[in-house]
Design goal:
This protein is about 60% helix and about 5% strand. The chain has 2 domains: about 1-85, DNA polymerase, domain 1 (Orthogonal Bundle); about 110-255, hpI Integrase, Chain A (Orthogonal Bundle). The chain is mainly alpha-helical. It has helices at about 1-10, 15-35, 50-60, 65-85, 110-130, 140-155, 160-165, 195-210, 235-245, 255-270, 275-280, 285-290, 290-305, and strands spanning about 170-175, 180, 190. It has 13 helices and 3 strands.
Length: about 300
Amino acid sequence: MRRFRTFLLAERNTSERTVAGYEIDLEQFAAFRWGPESQPPFDWAAVTPEDARAFLMAFARDEARATTMRRKLASMRTFFRFLSREGKVPSNPFGGLRGPKLPKPLPKVLSQDEIRRLIEAPGLELARREAQKCEVTQQETYACLRDTALFESLYSTGCRISEMVSLTWGQIHFDTGSVIVTGKGSKQRLCILGKPACKVLRDLRRAAGELFQNGDADTANVFLNERGLVFRPREAQRRMKTWLMAADLPMDLSPHKLRHSFATHLLDAGADLRSVQEMLGHSSLATTQIYTHVSVERLKDEYMKAHPRAT
């Protein structure tokens, strides 16, 4: 399993998070096949296709989600493919199995008005407190500016929250309105920043330099918490809940919905599908195509509401 971890990281360029998920799946299978108290080394060559099928069926009986079962299958299939390559097993017992079909729910997106309300919420709250002559610390002012910049940048670029919070100032090119983002599989791509995003990011850099030592340096993270430490995705999600409530928006929205909204609004306005694929960093065009379905469904909804003979 240690060699498998090295293989994933070095040869397949797998992220640490994905590797951790694979390790959990392998531990679960070992406990299922040899018992929860069993200890390595395990006789992987003794695993049969019947064992593999029974492992997946156990999750099906527990009514596990289709995505969970497919990940377990992918983990085990990859592991035994590695063992087969190493000459440790004669065949892959998971090779002939197929996972359950995934449902294809359409991604939830925000309207352009809802996006505007979310982005404006931190600034409006700050203005309200100042108008009421409430004491506002420099850290609180920075936090509101940071949240505005974060929402504006997420919607402007279509980045994942993990990609955005890992940015440093040196990756942003204000002269061209672009940013170099490192996505899944350590693949880099160029994302575009709109003028509102560039303006608020410039303001944020100035505020970070005044509040934190070297907070505006090229090597410093763009988004920091009130203590000057790296702003984590969990913190961003919690802050977004605060502003969703302030803007009277659904509380089940997440930073990733800004990515969905970015893609859908571009396609609604006539953007080329392959260009949107590149901006999102999708390796397959099929992944991007789900947003075309969102656009079609929206058109159908408007048709059903407006056309006199739609029903």
